Acyl-CoA hydrolase
Amino acid sequence: MSIKTPEQSRTIMTDLVLPSETNPLNNLFGGELLARMDRAASIAARRHSRRIVVTASVNHVEFNRAVPVGSVVTVEAKVSRAFRSSMEIYLDVWIEDRESGQKTKANEAIYTFVAVDETGRPVEVPELTPETDLEKERYNGALRRKQLSLVLAGKMKPAEATELKALFV
Ligand SMILES: CC(C)(COP(=O)(O)OP(=O)(O)OC[C@H]1O[C@@H](n2cnc3c(N)ncnc32)[C@H](O)[C@@H]1OP(=O)(O)O)[C@@H](O)C(=O)NCCC(=O)NCCS
């Protein structure tokens, strides 16, 4: 299986915030942003693996900045690390100023997707080699985040989480 780069999975989705997608403060509803990020992450995971992919876990979401109605929102997704069948997808969310066109980072999230066959069984995905400094930083932290997610899901014993233990010794 050929080795791929994060750039090969890069997915950019730009869309407006409509009134029906907002909360009582007229800002984008959190669940709507989660759905947009899930769609972008799913496309990135599919581009990396060229397989059917399913969301296994949402590892981290930061709603740092409210996104007002009428905003132009861009969600950028890239695979940050590939394991055996799972892929970590990093998402950056930007809003664009109407007059200047300047983009401001609004939110960020990390999802895990798993590639599966037609019966839903996990299948292997290509390896990933990071290229830029940011891609390398995200790649290096991904195993720690995978172990944390598995421990929180009760799928790994804390004693087996070597990367997490290494943080404290
Ligand atoms: C995701 C799914 C395929 C995992 O199946 P499984 O039987 O747990 O399979 P495995 O234990 O072999 O795990 C497969 C991979 O997922 C990873 N994984 C499973 N749960 C995880 C979690 N909570 N966090 C991070 N990674 C996880 C495993 O570590 C493994 O990774 P690896 O192969 O790269 O080492 C299965 O749980 C599933 O189909 N879930 C439903 C998915 C879905 O419908 N999503 C949409 C929600 S509406």
Summary: The pocket of coenzyme A is lined by residues 54-57, 83-86, 112, 114, 116, 120, 122, 146, 149-150, 153, 155 (CB under 6 Å).
